[in-house]
Amino acid sequence: GAVVSQHPSRVICKSGTSVKIECRSLDFQATTMFWYRQFPKKSLMLMATSNEGSKATYEQGVEKDKFLINHASLTLSTLTVTSAHPEDSSFYICSARVNGDGTYEQYFGPGTRLTVT
Amino acid sequence: DAKTTQPNSMESNEEEPVHLPCNHSTISGTDYIHWYRQLPSQGPEYVIHGLTSNVNNRMASLAIAEDRKSSTLILHRATLRDAAVYYCILKGANTGNQFYFGTGTSLTVIP
Questions:
Q1: Is the Cβ of A67 closer than 8 Å to some Cβ of chain B?
Q2: Which residues of chain A have pLDDT under 50?
């Protein structure tokens, strides 16, 4: 199956700083990527959808100026958490969609655990 | 969003079959039924998906009710590695072809 990677796998940052998380589709081109966040013992919450070369579409309640998403190529999307605060500590998961066969299958990355101190 | 309802948790003995139910009474005709599972501190892993007919793959089987308002994921012989949270998700025009995760079922496999 298609492989999606994320880097870093875990990161600790100080409050007020920004942190960038990368999501790559390793063996396929993904015109659409998704970003989710997951709090402990909770389900995944869709944050935003990004299409290559265009602005991301954010879900209701997600601050676009705080969570900057860039999808500059068909294999890379980045999520930057700006001016991070402890409440931003979470598990961030990206997903990439394969559009080739009409069923729009999605493959998920392994996640990035962000801890803001 | 197209909603699914699953039991919060289930238990199974190792090497026995497991039937994980999912209700999706508001499913539309073009919604696919997807199942993913998530192990602790990992991203979701694809299990199976279907539209109308029952589906089998090397991981599991998916039984879809005739009216499509419910489905059941079947693990034929549970192993300890199958312990995970299983998510039943609808995807189609109603969801903008996006995945919206519900609460899922936490499966415990008892040795």
A1: no
A2: none
